[in-house]
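User: Can you help me understand a structure? I only have the sequence.
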Amino acid sequence: MITKRQKLATALLLSIMGSGAWGCQPVLAADVVGQIKEIAVTPLDSPDADGGWAQGQDNARNNRLTVSGEAQLRFGRGAMAEAGAASGNWLVIKDEAAVSVAQAAYVNGTMNKKNVQAYDNHLVITDKGRLGGTYLGEVSVGFGAQVQRGSTAGNWVSYNSMAGQRGIRLFGGSTQQGNAGQLEGENGLPFGGNIVETSGNAVFRKIVGGYTDDGNAVNNKVTIGGAEASYVEVYGGESRFGDVRKNTVTVNGGTMQDCPRWSDGEVRVVARRVAGPVAHGFHVLPSDELGYYGRSHMAHCIAAGYTHSGTAEDNLLVINAGNEVRGFGGFSNRGDAKKNRVLVNGGNITKTVVGGYTVEGDAIANQVTVAGGKLKANLAGGISEDGDAANNSIDFQKGDFTGSMLGGNALLGDAYNNRVTVADMKVSGSSSQVVGGMATGSAYKNNVVITGGTLPTVFGGYSGGDAVSNTITITGGQLQGGVAGGLSRLGEAQNNTINILGGHFGSEDTTEEANNVIAGGVAASKGASGNTVNIYGGTFGPHIQLQGGQSEVESQANTLNLHTKGNTIEGLKYFQNLNFYIPAGTQAGETMLTVTGTADVHGASIRAGVQDAARLNPGEVIKLLYSPQPLAADGASYNTLSGMDRVTDDAFVSRKAVVKKQDANTIVLTVSGDGGTSLDPDTKLIPEGRENALNTLVRGSDIAATEGYASAVAAYEAAWLEDHSIKAKFTPYVVLGGHNLRYTTGSYVDSHGFNGELGFVKRDYAKGHVDTIMPFAEYGTGSFTSHLDSGARGDGSQHYVGGGLLMRRDLDNGVHYEGMVRAGHLGGDYQGTIAGVPASWKDGGTYLAAHLGLGRKVVRKENTYDFYGKFFWTHLGSGETTLHTAKRRLPYQLDSVESYRTRLGARWTRQQNAASSIYAGLGWDYEFDGKARAAYKSYSTPSPTLQGSSGFVELGWQSKASKENPWGADVRVTGWAGRQRGVTYSATISRRI
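Assistant: Let's start by predicting it. Here is the structure, written out as tokens:
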């Protein structure tokens, strides 16, 4: 019971603080600066003291009052300014001294409340110093700065006393009319918000970093700790009628105590009664507790920012340690709560943690992040009692959890675009829930993402109205409760989605339906439509009930997309579309989904598709759906998925698949007997190897007719310098070349190779012309990689050995014509993956090639222009090969391959001096055929072709041997585009012998 003396003391304090009447003080005529006082004994004449007093509009700066020993004061002030500014003042309470009302600075006020009247003042309570004493009873309050009219910024309170007090109130900066705190740099001051830091062993009744009645509280900071300390109310920034922004509270220790209800005594129950049935298989909130986060359940004891009428925005609560911790990032009674955050790193968390809470406004983009700690509490990203909750989130990274978790909660409005992410959570308590968005109105477009942990019941959206387009995505973890994409008690459940990529679902310990339900959407009173469950992975307990759109009123257009095999559940219901995507590697006789209890698919569209060419021979089946009990499948239809209706046997023969009900218990996919048989498209890899072989041989003709001829002439001319009788002899020459090319064949082939030629050249000079004769031997080798559109890949290596003869005549008028024949043998080794099966094979055959060319050279001083046309014919003979797989040896017939290729081009050569020249050219090739074919029995593989155009640009440099220099060289690089893309290159070195 409050005594008469306590009432009188309180009345006196409020009167003095409100009016600013502090008694008679000396009249000062100028700023009060640098006064230092210490009081170690209780004064006999007056219970009040100050470091300095500035009268009128004078300022009080850098004054200091120290209260020590066992001295006691009623009012202790570092400095006072009546209407000026107070800055840099200190009040220190140490030893066992006590001050009932401690103010590092007090300013009665200014006519402009926006002026910063108190800044950079410091209150320190240390040792066993106390707030309180004998003068004002239980009054014990401290201020870094207190202003009646004007703003405060950058003031600081530090309390680490071990006096063991109770009921302490601390304010970093307080003002009746003005702003509490500011952003750094505002008003030309380097000081930002007000700061309070506490530890020790006191019981703190209230701590506020920055308080204001009608202004804004901005950028204030409170840090609390102390293993023996206790706290009741803590606010980074508090305003009755203004906004609170960018305030921070950090909890490093201590125990949080229950705080009283509201300061005006109001206790308002806001839980909204929602009548109607409860959905089957889910623990849902009692009908009168849908809005269970009401004011009757939570007092805003700890909040980084609290306002009665303004907006709470961008405030931050950090919890690192402590016991019985609870709190809010931002709290507003009548305004919005926006972009507030709570970060939990540790501690024992109880009751409630909310990113942003508002009674009458909207809760927007608030966030809670949990990185550690033990939480026996309800968590919410954002809550609005009367408005909407939108874009709020919870990111639960790690911790122990008991309670309910809501991304966003709207007690009267809608909840939308809220999100909960869980990475590693250990949950206890069967009533725990994780909800993306909860609303008495509609819940739509809310998301839950789970990557690990042990979890309770999960809802994407939970609503009294409609639950629409909510999504749950699960990649890991253990789900011990039911999972629903969207749940509506009185409205529709529409277009909700569950994506399952991993995790384990259900409980082996209980058959209770609440622990074993997966439902795309649930409507307790109306219809459920358009809901989807996608299963890409995960495992399921034996009692799982898999449902699409749970509704006893109407369930339509709900879909199951199953991408995995070997699943066993207890029940299947409320799906009107079931799509089975048979995964790669599925064997005949395997089952995708087994239902041990009731499988109700009546009236459903049941379709299946084969991915990556599953193995299936005629007469074999893959079970899509099986139950030991007869299936409820009246009115069901069966079909294949578009573009996924082919199955392949062990010989890579592809046949059309069909879906049918095999018997009363089984729905299967099997092979159709209606024709449509062909080889799997991946067998295109076999003729792709021959296609590359053909290109390698064409490259051999090219190098013989161009680089080979140029090399031979250079070798002949070098030999002529040494011995003029060389014209009656054959001169040896060597040319080496390589290529890095990509061929477009309907898919594409990357080829890398080497070509070499060793030959002899003889030139006969006659009247009006020169004849060149070049017999040669050739060798080429290379590797290639084929890439099909399906993703299949084949690799191989090839080599050829052969010989040829080239003859050319150059007329004196610049016209030249030539012909060439080549013959030899090509062989290769190949391996690839066909329809997901590793395979290898060999290939070989005889080749023939011929070439005709016609052109004319035009000489203009040191420039020579060569215009030409060429025709290349290349033939690779037919053959057979055996395709080796782990199960089969498959004989394939290989057709001969023909290439008919023309070339039109021009080359410019500039003679730099008698021995060296540079040249450049461009040309166009066109392939008229180049199609490779292979067959297995009566089935032909897809045929790649090289038919089409390619263009090239060449650059080169040539240096001829001379009497002074016995060495010669020719280097050429050619770039290609079109059907053939990449680079070819060659180099020739000659020496005069």
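Now, to help you interpret it: The radius of gyration is 44 Å. The chain is about 5% helix and 55% strand. Let me know which part you'd like to focus on.
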